[in-house]
Amino acid sequence: MEVTMAPPALPVRLLPARPSWLKPSVLRVEALSGLVVALALIPEAIAFSIIAGVDPQVGLFASFTMAVTIAFVGGRPAMISAATGAIALVVAPLAREHGVEYLVAAVILGGLLQIALAVAGVARLMRFLPRSVMVGFVNALAILIFTSQLPYLVNVPSTVYVLLAVGLALLVGLPRLTRAVPGPLAAIVALTAFTVAAGVVVPTVGDQGELPDSLPVLGFPAVPLTLETLQLVAPFALAIALVGLIESLMTAKLVDDITDTHSDKTRESWGQGVANVVTGFFGGMGGCAMIGQTMINVKVGGARTRVSTFLAGVFLLVLVVAVGQVVALIPMAALVGVMIMVAVGTFDWHSVKPATLRMMPRSETTVMLSTVVVTVGTHNLAYGVGVGVLTAMVLFARRVAHLVEVTSVLDPDAGTRVYRVTGQLFFASSNDLVYQFRYATDPENVVIDLSEAHVWDASTVAALDAVTTKYEARGITVTIVGMNSNSRDRHDRLAGRLTDAH
């Protein structure tokens, strides 16, 4: 009698798996990190409001709405978005000349443009960013984070430097003893408690500007809905969209590298747009990803989920509205110490080691330095990245152009000369192509062999036309052979059609 064994019963899951962020250990890390980020956001938001020429609550409300919204719609978990200096610099002229209502209108339109750019696939352009530009971006950010703290250390009581030294010691030493409490939070609480208890008079968060005492209100900007208004705000809106996307996508890629995870750049792009639209309707000044606070959240705090981003926004609103009087007592020295450590941790020290610089090609170092110099000089990451990419393109084109070679052989009967072209033919390499042939001394038949070359653009086709024309003027027959299918299609489509024969 044959006996068959029934397969073991699979365990039945009656309840869905609990999300990882609900685990007490994870939630504690996310909450504490979000609290530290919120504390660090307050003086930054106030400072950026001053740059933009608006009331501090405009920047603070923008940081709250950006952080909370991007926590749900963003593509990079644990990244912090809030009011930023780059956006403040962009909108400052508009706010100064036309008022905050036009600024808000530009923020809303800028958000809509970001959504449109996301749909058009702007995130895919990130793959064209060379590594040297990314390194320059990181180093420039570190320098800007550090230099942005220097004003808080000029013309201040000597006690500030003592507090800063103690704060840095806590930030460096405490993580080596325990990670139960984040170093930044411990430094902020300890220094605040000391200055209050000892009655030490030093610059505080409250000295940076008046904190709001009410919640943001939903509304529509009080601007006329006319073509003139659109023409006025559109250039600023486009600048907001481009600067915000560049900073956010670059920061997202940086966090990807730090956490060894992949984020959805397209979702992050339209998420930034949605966040700016929401921020605009709540009267905020707009924003994008913040590298400094993101590094606090990811590298210092160890956060990895959207919870930290959401709580950073919530804690920010609670701190400035409900317990603003307590927050105002935090000495700026504590926050400066946190940001200095962020700058030190952000900088890619390996990239500037003498051994690395000797090993690295000069073109790569040039691209990195150009990104750093322009970013630091203009305080605009978009300019720095743009110049870095342009420099990389020019140096790459120059390097590839030098790899094109033209060699020639004469057949045994001396009736035909064969020219063999090797390399990538495009505008930089094909401009000199016309001078590589012996028009006056060549026999009656010339063969140009392109089997080891590739035709990339119309400039190359025009150069081949010029060579053919010069030979034909001398009664010499030219035959072009060896093109691959892509080169042949481009040549056949454009040959003889690039200049006016008449």
Which geometry do the CA atoms define?
elongated
Q: Unreliable segments (pLDDT under 50, ≥5 consecutive)? A: none
Mean pLDDT over the full residue set = 87
The number of domains: 2
Q: Count up the helices.
A: 19
What level of helicity do the residues show? 55-70%
Radius of gyration: 30 Å
The proportion of residues in beta strands is: 5-15%
What structural class do you assign from the helix and strand content?
alpha/beta
Major pleated sheet: 4 strands, mixed
Order of helices and strands: HHEHHHHHHHEHHHHHHHEEHEHEH
Membrane topology: Multi-pass membrane protein
Domain STAS: 406-502
Subcellular location: Membrane
Transmembrane segments: 31-54, 66-90, 102-123, 135-154, 160-178, 185-205, 225-246, 314-347, 367-396
Short summary of the structure?
This protein is an alpha/beta fold. Helices cover 60% and strands 7% of the residues.
Explain the overall architecture.
This protein is α/β, with parallel strands linked by helices. Helix content is 60%, strand content 7%. It has two domains: 20-382, no CATH class; 405-494, 2-Layer Sandwich (Transcription Regulator spoIIAA). It starts with 23 loop residues before the first helix and ends in an 8-residue tail after the last helix. It contains 19 helices and six strands. Strand 4 (416-425), helix 17 (427-430) and strand 5 (445-455) form a beta-alpha-beta unit. Helix 1 (24-52) crosses helix 11 (306-321), helix 5 (131-147) runs parallel beside helix 15 and helix 8 (227-259) crosses helix 9. 45% of the residues are buried. It has a four-stranded mixed β-sheet with strand order 3-4-5-6.
